[in-house]
Amino acid sequence: MLQCLNKQTITQRFFKNFYTSVIPKVGLDIQEKLIFEQGNENSVGIDFEQPDLSIKSRLGHLKRNSKIGLPNLNEVQVIRHYSRLARFNYGVDTGLYPLGSCTMKYNPRINEKVARIPNLAFSHPFLPTEAIQGSLGLIDRLAEDLLKITGMNSICMSPAAGAHGELCAMQTIAQAHKKQGNTHKNYILIPDAAHGTNPATSAMAGFKVRVVKSTKNGKIDLEDFKKKCKDDVAGAMITNPNTCGLFENDICKIAEMLHEKGAYLFMDGANMNALMGRVFVSDLGVDAMHMNLHKTFSTPHGSSGPGSGPVVFSEKLTKYAPIPYIVNDEGEFKVIEKDRTGNSFGRMKAYFGQVGIHARALAYISAYGNGLASVSGDSVLNANYVKFKLEKEMSLGYPKNKYCMHEVLFSDNFLKGTTLTTLDFAKAMIDAGYHPPTIYFPLVVHGAMLIEPTESESKETLDDYCKIIIDLAINAKTGKYDEDFHEAPTTTIIRRADETRAAKFPILTYQEK
Ligand SMILES: *Cc1c(COP(=O)(O)O)cnc(C)c1O
């Protein structure tokens, strides 16, 4: 294993020392310049006929005075530029993509085909409702299916992502308290393991956040929850299974405590891949929950979109939920745009939601039918398979739990005594041919690595993956290969990017040097 790393490192050094003037290359992968850097002002990619300059321009003050700002490349250059960029993509179609908390499952091609049906893909939201009955019917049917899966009372289909769905739920809870005159209810309880979008959306909806501790087994500390669940609490945001990949067994008790105080339970449903077909969330005492259609119900995602995060509500919250919604009036689908009771907090988004993603989710659900329970069963089975294979050489985040749900959490404990960090270990995985898992999240475990294989991986893939990771872990612990780990990845065009800087100071427009 590590021999392969060494060889690569040598190649890289060879290039560094002897060919500093060439564009960095790894095999046939080229470090692609920006399209504007490749362009040349003196060339044109297309032959225009010489304009008749004797005709007076009729453009008047609209005539362009500045440069046109096109990159000026010929067709071959353009094709190569975009084809090379496309090769840099890593996705579920390329290999295992075990990003915990993201559910990077295979997205069946039939879903893509359905979403591209021209009448659906090109229908315009400004068309009269008579002309978009098919699209509205599709949204309505998916809404019905999602209600069946969750057992809840009503649904809002418009939110455009998981975080947007959370915001939708928190605004609904805020509206419910406002309408009931509960001005003293300003706090939302959130466990310390929560996804960052939970506190963010609470704050955006006008609440303050009170953090609840986790126990040393990675679950909500019920005593701490009880202490903090006071009269000023408006609700709680509980992820279940939580971000440590563990089921919160006390969810029903938590719901009771909240309801006793006149507060609401929001469940972060991003991890529905572990539950669907197994439990009605309505039975858990949940008042609102978002689902990530782009995770659980198979829409390709990553790099900020596209997404869809419908929210289901209990009967208590239904009248405060946002508009618009679709009703089936004896076979005719109508869009209800106005809230007649004056209770709804309003609109989340223009139009009806992400119809293309609704189409994919409906295709996915229809293909599985009752088999959705086998999806959650297999995703939990696969995660536990990885857990039992890796736990001897790596260190579990919470070793006392015999089983995990759909993802398994490791800490950097096994790297103690070496100079290696979780980042070094994750980067070495790339050289070994595997995309790293989610790292340094959740924050409750030191140097976290969160692996979510999903149900779509075969035993062969998981066996190979575990073999390689075990090899890496054994080599890491010897302390003999620290330099190789620090150098990794050596097989990529860009080695270690400054990810924090890239996220905080992105340069989004090209500036000529
Ligand atoms: C992914 C995720 C979210 C946010 O969903 P987005 O669609 O990325 O906005 C929220 N909570 C959890 C636990 C998640 O995994």
UniProtKB/TrEMBL annotation:
<dbReference type="InterPro" id="IPR015422">
    <property type="entry name" value="PyrdxlP-dep_Trfase_small"/>
</dbReference>
<dbReference type="Pfam" id="PF21478">
    <property type="entry name" value="GcvP2_C"/>
</dbReference>
<protein>
    <recommendedName>
        <fullName>glycine dehydrogenase (aminomethyl-transferring)</fullName>
        <ecNumber>1.4.4.2</ecNumber>
    </recommendedName>
</protein>
<dbReference type="InterPro" id="IPR020581">
    <property type="entry name" value="GDC_P"/>
</dbReference>
<feature type="domain" description="Aminotransferase class V">
    <location>
        <begin position="168"/>
        <end position="302"/>
    </location>
</feature>
<dbReference type="InterPro" id="IPR015421">
    <property type="entry name" value="PyrdxlP-dep_Trfase_major"/>
</dbReference>
<keyword id="KW-0663">Pyridoxal phosphate</keyword>
<feature type="domain" description="Glycine dehydrogenase C-terminal">
    <location>
        <begin position="379"/>
        <end position="475"/>
    </location>
</feature>
<dbReference type="InterPro" id="IPR000192">
    <property type="entry name" value="Aminotrans_V_dom"/>
</dbReference>
<dbReference type="InterPro" id="IPR049316">
    <property type="entry name" value="GDC-P_C"/>
</dbReference>
<dbReference type="Pfam" id="PF00266">
    <property type="entry name" value="Aminotran_5"/>
</dbReference>
<keyword id="KW-0560">Oxidoreductase</keyword>
<dbReference type="InterPro" id="IPR015424">
    <property type="entry name" value="PyrdxlP-dep_Trfase"/>
</dbReference>
